[in-house]
Amino acid sequence: xxxxxxxxxxxxxxxxxxxxxxxxxxxxxxxxxxxxxxxxxxxxxxxxxxxxxxxxxxxxxxxxxxxxxxxxxxxxxxxxxxxxxxxxxxxxxxxxxxxxxxxxxxxxxxxxxxxxxxx
Length: 119
Description:
This protein is mainly alpha-helical. It has helices at 5-20, 26-33, 37-49, 65-87, 92-105, 108-118, and strands spanning 53-55, 61-63.
């Protein structure tokens, strides 16, 4: 169930926004990510075609089970890697930026090993 880094970022953003807002719309994603609404619309079409999201007639975006699984995996990686780097003494803004990059490229095996080590 591999998707590209951009799709992972969109799914993660939808997950985070769904915890903060009653409904998630394309404009919310555009504002959160700093992208044009037209770019977000193209991305939502691709995620919908891959069955990672649904969009209802009001434009409300919901993660499907596969979309939620990807989003939660990326979000867990982001939270764990950034907090680990901060505990290692990396300044927070650098840790958050690095975690955004690392969360996409680290293998499942390496992430699980780090997770076990941190525990």
